[in-house]
Structure formats: C-alpha cells, structure tokens
Amino acid sequence: MYTLPELKQDKDFDSIAIMTSGGDAPGMNPAIRGVVRAALSQGIKVYGIQRGYSGLIADDMSTLQSGSVSNIVQRGGTVLKTDRCTAFKDPAVRAAAAEILRRRGIGALVVIGGDGSLTGAHLLQQETGIPVIGIPGTIDNDIFGTEDTIGFDTAVNTALEAIDRIRDTATSHERHFLVEVMGRASGSIAINVGMAAGAEMILVPERAIDVAAISSELAASRRAGTGSSGIIVVAEGPTPGLTSRLAEQLREQGQDPRVCILGHIQRGGSPSGHDRVLATCMGAMAVRYLCAGYSDIMVGVRDGSIIDVPLDDVIRFRKGLDPSLLDMALQVHR
Ligand code: ATP
C-alpha cells in the first residue's frame, strides 16, 4: 500500500516540465507517461524537455498532451532523448536555466535520471528556488534512499538471458567464460544476475579480486571433475578493461577463459512488467508530491512502498551493496 500525500487546496503552479537525463534506462518512457497523465488529470500543463539539461539550457521543449505519451509504455530508451551536459555544472548556467523556466511560467521540474542528474536538480532548487522532484532512473540501482530504480529489473533480466545462452556454449566446449556486466562502483547487477544465472563465481567492486585464488579454484574443480565449464560474472568496475586484464592474468596462471562483455545490450530493450509498474507509480507519485507542496525530494521505494527521500540525502550518502545479499551470494557461489 502506498501512503498518498494530502493534496494542497491551491496549487502553486499550473505548468511543470519533465526531462530524462544521464544514461537511458528501460522504464523511462512509462515514467514520462505516468507524470504526464497524472499531471493532466490535475489540470496541470506539462512541457517535455528534449535531451536533459542540454535541452533545458537551449530552451528546447514543447507541451505534451495525453496522446503524446500513447503507445510508449512498452518502448525502451526515452522518447524525450537524453544527454550528459557538462555546462549544467556551472551555477551561472543553472541560473539561466531557471530564468528559461520562469519565462515560460513553468512552476516545477521533474527529473528522471541517475545520481548525477539528481545532483543537478538539487542544485537548481537550492540556488534558484525552482521546485524539483527526482525520479531514480538508472539500471545500476546505486542510488541512496531507494531499494529499486527504474531499469534495474529489466537490465538484470536482459543480462540473464544472454548468460543463459553463453552457458550453452560454455558447457558444450567445456570452457569458462568471464561475463562482464555493468556496474562501475556497484556490484548490484552482478550479484543479482550471478545468483539468477547460477554463476560459479561473482566478482564485484566491493570485494578485492584474488587472481591466484580464482585460478586454483578453477584448477581444483576441474581436477575433481566438477568444473569443466562455468560462468564467472564480473562487474565492470571503475577502470575500463578489467575483465580482459583478468582473463590475461588467468591465462598467465594456466587457465584459458573466454571473455564476453555485455556492454550496452543491458541498457536497451522493452521494460519488464516490474519496471513498467514501478515507473508508472513513481511518475504518478512525483506529481502527487508536487501537488502536495513537496520539493527537493526524490521518489523512492522502501519496504515495497513509495516514499519521499530528501535529495540532499540522496546526494550526500552512498548506497552500499546489501551485505546480506552479498553474504547469501557468497554462500552459494564463490
Ligand atoms: P547514470 O547513472 O546513467 O550515469 P547519471 O544521471 O548519474 O546517470 P551523469 O552523467 O552523472 O549521469 O549526470 C547526468 C547529467 O546531470 C550531467 O551531464 C549534468 O548535466 C548533470 N550533473 C551531474 N553532476 C552534476 C553536478 N555536480 N552539478 C550539476 N549538474 C550535474
């Protein structure tokens, strides 16, 4: 059950704007749809900003009608396009962006994106007073204050489907595969994909990699006749090329693993049912919070309910990998 905030009698605005920013994530479209339809139902006009903060500072936006978001709920990516806009890190540029919104009579901004995008929204609010609401849209599920982010479930399922196929080849050729999944600072995708795929090992940035130990485990299981093939799921980690370097080091130790980097395959595709529902609810709740007078918050999930989280906390604190999930994964896998 969601606790719906009380609506204020008089709204402080009659127009809002919405954007998607940072890396695209499957489910951004249902979130846009949720915001637009919920706002229109309250008599609020909605502007769709193209290409995130780049479009905002270029005043590239247009009004969205109910029909503008028809037939997008099942589509991956974002119909509003997205971008990374370095210029928005400059306070003077943010002040100019606020002026653009004010000139158009836009009273609040909804930003769908990862922690960088939410930082930009928070700074815009703090410096200019423009009310903002953030929606966590990132496949990484690495945002503090929410158990789930839009796109994570789809990305896990996409990677899982790929690994199930790789396992057929690994088994037939009696080989080990290092499969790299996304996750520069967080092993969240790797742990979930690794558990669901029954991976023989899961390597995450939160734990140091011991190449010699991996090599001797592979050799021991081969000697015991229990491990002629297998899947090792590797989170990409902070420096590019980790998995290829690891394969090289394992070859130096006498192993012969193959490497498969899933890369951008994990970002695209039709959002899962879970992500569509999550995104739709988050979009509708973002409008509800705005109408109730909230600002400078992110819509998050705690214990299955949608809650408001101060953006200041979202930005200040880091979300660690759930230690109990990591423990359980390491009990079953290595
Ligand atoms: P993902 O999780 O997919 O990487 P993200 O939102 O974290 O998404 P970023 O590239 O970090 O992606 O940020 C997206 C955009 O948000 C940036 O291009 C910039 O416009 C804005 N942004 C990021 N950090 C800041 C900041 N410190 N100050 C102002 N704006 C920022």
Automatic annotation (TrEMBL):
**GO cellular component labels:** 6-phosphofructokinase complex
Q: In what pathway does it function?
A: Carbohydrate degradation; glycolysis; D-glyceraldehyde 3-phosphate and glycerone phosphate from D-glucose: step 3/4
According to UniProt, the reaction catalysed is: beta-D-fructose 6-phosphate + ATP = beta-D-fructose 1,6-bisphosphate + ADP + H(+)
Q: Does the UniProt entry include the keyword Coiled coil?
A: no
- Give this protein's Gene Ontology molecular function annotations: 6-phosphofructokinase activity; AMP binding; ATP binding; fructose-6-phosphate binding; identical protein binding; metal ion binding; monosaccharide binding
Where's it found, cell-wise? Cytoplasm
Q: Which residues bind substrate?
A: 138-140, 175, 182-184, 236, 258, 264-267
User: Required co-factor?
Assistant: Mg(2+)
Q: Which residues form the Phosphofructokinase domain?
A: 16-289
Assembly mode = Homotetramer.
Q: What is this protein called?
A: ATP-dependent 6-phosphofructokinase
* Gene behind this protein: pfkA
